[in-house]
Amino acid sequence: xxxxxxxxxxxxLTLQQIEEHHAEFASVICVSMTVSDHLNESSVQSLFTxxxxxxxxxxxxxxxxxxxxxxxCATCGMQSSVWEYVPYTDCLVCGKMALPRTQAHEWSFDSIxxxxxxx
Length: 119
Ligand SMILES: [Zn+2]
Prior knowledge:
- This protein is of the alpha+beta class and 119 residues long.
- The chain has a domain at 2-68 and 103-115: hypothetical protein PF0899 fold, CATH 3.30.2320.
- Helices cover 25% and strands 34% of the residues.
- A hairpin with a 6-residue loop joins β5 (89-90) and β6.
- It starts with a helix and ends with a strand.
- The relative contact order is 0.26.
C-alpha cells in the first residue's frame, strides 16, 4: 500500500512545517500527483482524512494538482498522456499497445498555507 505511506509522508511534512513556523494548523496543503491505478481524488482525500485525524493537519484542505500518466508505445516509442488510469492504451500513431511509462505514484509536496500561532 504505497499510497498509504505517501499520504503519511504528506501529513508528516505538514506537521513539520507547522512546527517549524510555530503555526497552529495548516489550512491548505498543495500537492501534485500523477494519475495511477491507486491514486484518484476520492481515494487520496479519504486516506488523508483518516491519516490526518487528530493532528493539526486534520482540517486542512488537500488541494491536489493532477498530472496525467505518461504511456509509451512498445513498438514505435510514441508517448501519450492519459488522465484516467487504464492498464494500457492504444498508440495514437501505430495502434499497438502503449503501457504506462512511469510506474506512477509520483508526487510532490508543493506548498502549504499555515494559520494561527505567533507570526
Ligand atoms: Zn506506436
